[in-house]
């Protein structure tokens, strides 16, 4: 019998987990698995939040991709030109092509600072930084080490973005950082968002809204940036609002991979149209997508990719057996949110339920408290780096934490979200 | 919270967004618009409102940038039509939920 091919595009969190899950489940004589990524380094992306403040150093958040790919999965470092669903081929920019029986798109999303006039101008990595790339987070670390203070503006260009709470965490950590440096009085922190508030869900606003005020962070809402004036160091929005900065930490527009656009099946931001329950794309039945690359109305976060990977593994096994796709993703996300001063929150939510308070993972026991600031949650967030490298990226599961959200232990009566 | 519009009870949440779209009609929209400081809804307003409602029905998450790329209006005009927080305001008038992030 001729063997068949599964190709995974992208060897980040989602692609790496899929390679490990599937290699463990599929017969080596029947199925070849190939994973393609143009780069050779796997970054622990949650670490980009800590790098600017010197909480992590650059060496602990990067490892070679090949370290996490099973030896009987072929790893190719090459650049993808486009996918051709009609012929089941992936074309590379070097002219070569790979044939697939099943394709998994896991190429994530990235920042596109060039989309806003003046963002990637003369001040880029001088006084304007991102912290969503290794390069940006590292450059910002060097800047913050010697910065003398002034107006620090933390800004989101547009949703959706990877890890939607990261800019808020950055603001809280910045407050903490300058306090400890004894220069908080010399820094004015402003948080600028295109949304209607720093928190947008009613329960979170009520419970956590005070954090912004307590930490003396100024808030500018409903701000849709049109351009950045590098001469006057001003953000201008379409409605005529202006915000001045000395140091701008921006989250540029996030976009899916360029080859998705070139293949002609992405949406306006190069995200792959994907069924939010089965993770099968609408492009073709044998093309699936996972993680930040999809158009799912779920958070773009590592925990989401992790939960999705268990669902997608089952559905690919069903697809191979000609069975109906039996696993359903519920939008489950589970994230630690740093609030500064060695504290963090834990939030757990899905498509149907907003984050509320309660206990996690055991009903009534915890030990984690949801939506409450605690040292234990902060330790959880820092400890997660070890879990990421040693458990998740090796395709293992975390005990007691299920891909679908558990409603027990949660005060769902506190939900106020209208759908 | 309930408001009487033309002898019909319309439900709103604490932030003034409708909680039951089946109660929405043009008169309700005009009432909300007036409250939001938009005395007259022009044909352009209605085009945007219809588009937002269609997007919501198809479960497409809404952003200001997406409205700008809708082909119906550009972002500058969208701000002029619904001043100060256009997406929030337009969603409110369209009877659809507030665009939110995860928290």
Give the secondary structure arrangement, pairings included.
The complex is a heterodimer of chains A (419) and B (103).
Chain A: E1 4-9, H1 13-25, E2 31-36, E3 41-43, E4 62-64, E5 74-76, E6 80-84, E7 89-92, E8 97-99, E9 102-105, E10 109-111, E11 128-129, H2 134-146, E12 150-156, H3 166-180, E13 187-192, H4 202-214, E14 218-220, E15 225-229, E16 234-237, E17 242-244, E18 247-251, E19 254-256, H5 258-263, E20 287-289, H6 302-320, E21 333-340, E22 343-349, E23 358-362, E24 366-370, H7 375-390
Helix pairs in contact in A: 1-6
Chain B: E1 2-5, E2 8-11, H1 26-35, H2 43-57, H3 64-68, H4 75-81, H5 86-94
Antiparallel strand pairs in B: 1-2
What does this entry show, briefly?
The complex is a heterodimer of chains A (419) and B (103). Helix content of chain A is 23%, strand content 25%.
Describe the structure.
The complex is a heterodimer of chains A (419) and B (103). Chain A is α/β, with parallel strands linked by helices and 419 residues long. Chain A has three domains: 4-108 and 257-320, FAD/NAD(P)-binding domain, CATH 3.50.50.60; 112-253, FAD/NAD(P)-binding domain (3-Layer(bba) Sandwich); 336-414, no CATH class. Chain A has helices at 13-25, 134-146, 166-180, 202-214, 258-263, 302-320, 375-390; strands spanning 4-9, 31-36, 41-43, 62-64, 74-76, 80-84, 89-92, 97-99, 102-105, 109-111, 128-129, 150-156, 187-192, 218-220, 225-229, 234-237, 242-244, 247-251, 254-256, 287-289, 333-340, 343-349, 358-362, 366-370. In chain A, the strands form eight sheets. Chain A has a five-stranded parallel sheet, with helices on one face. The radius of gyration of chain A is 22 Å and the shape is globular. The relative contact order of chain A is 0.14. By secondary structure, chain B is mainly alpha-helical. Chain B has one domain (1-103). In chain B, 45% of the residues lie in helices and 8% in strands. Chain B is built from five helices and two strands. Chain B has helices at 26-35, 43-57, 64-68, 75-81, 86-94, and strands spanning 2-5, 8-11. The interface between A and B is medium-sized, with 35 and 30 residues.
């Amino acid at each position: 019998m001729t063997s068949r091919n599964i190709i995974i595009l992208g060897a980040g969190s989602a692609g790496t987990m899929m390679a490990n899950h599937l290699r463990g489940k599929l017969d080596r004589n029947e199925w070849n698995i190939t994973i393609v990524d143009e780069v050779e380094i796997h970054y622990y992306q949650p670490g980009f939040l800590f790098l600017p403040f010197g909480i992590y150093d650059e060496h602990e958040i990067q490892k070679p991709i090949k370290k996490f790919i099973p030896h009987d999965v072929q790893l190719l470092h090459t650049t993808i030109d486009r996918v051709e669903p009609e012929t089941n081929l992936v074309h590379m920019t070097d002219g070569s092509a790979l044939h697939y029986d099943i394709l998994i798109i896991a190429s994530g999303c990235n920042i596109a600072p060039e989309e806003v006039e003046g963002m990637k101008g003369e001040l880029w990595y001088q006084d304007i930084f991102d912290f969503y790339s290794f390069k940006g987070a590292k450059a910002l670390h060097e800047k913050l080490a010697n910065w003398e203070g002034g107006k620090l503006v933390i800004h989101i260009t547009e949703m959706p973005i990877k890890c939607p709470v990261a800019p808020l965490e950055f603001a809280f950590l910045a407050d903490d950082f300058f306090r400890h440096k004894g220069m908080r009085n010399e820094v004015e922190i402003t948080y600028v968002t295109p949304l209607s508030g720093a928190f947008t869900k009613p329960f979170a606003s009520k419970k956590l809204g005070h954090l912004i005020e307590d930490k003396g962070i100024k808030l500018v809402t409903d701000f849709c940036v049109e351009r950045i004036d590098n001469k006057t160091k001003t953000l201008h929005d379409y409605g005529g609002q202006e915000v001045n900065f000395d140091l701008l930490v921006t989250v540029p527009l996030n976009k899916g991979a360029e080859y998705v656009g070139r293949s002609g099946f992405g949406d306006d931001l190069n995200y792959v149209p994907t069924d939010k329950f089965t993770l099968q794309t609408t492009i073709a039945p044998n093309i699936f997508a996972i993680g930040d690359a999809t158009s799912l109305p779920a958070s773009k976060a590592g925990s989401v990719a992790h939960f999705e990977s268990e669902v997608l593994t089952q559905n690919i096994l069903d697809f191979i057996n000609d069975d109906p796709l039996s696993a359903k993703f519920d939008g489950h996300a589970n994230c630690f949110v740093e609030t500064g001063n060695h504290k963090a929150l834990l939030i757990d939510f899905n498509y149907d339920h907003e984050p509320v308070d309660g206990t996690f993972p055991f009903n009534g026991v915890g030990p984690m408290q949801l939506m409450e600031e605690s040292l234990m949650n902060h330790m959880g967030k820092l400890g997660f780096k070890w879990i990421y490298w040693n458990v998740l990226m090796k395709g293992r599961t975390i005990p007691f934490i299920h891909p679908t959200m558990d409603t027990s232990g949660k005060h769902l009566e506190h939900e106020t979200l209208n759908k | 919270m309930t408001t009487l519009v033309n002898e019909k009870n319309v439900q709103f949440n604490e932030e003034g967004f409708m909680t039951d779209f089946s109660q929405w009609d043009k008169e309700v929209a005009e009432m909300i618009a007036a409250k939001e400081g938009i005395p007259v809804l022009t044909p352009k307003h209605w085009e945007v409102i219809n588009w937002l409602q269609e997007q919501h029905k198809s479960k497409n998450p809404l952003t200001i940038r997406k409205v700008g790329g809708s082909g119906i209006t550009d972002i500058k005009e969208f701000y002029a039509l619904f001043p100060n927080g256009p997406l929030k305001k337009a969603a409110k008038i369209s009877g659809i939920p507030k665009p939110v992030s995860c928290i």
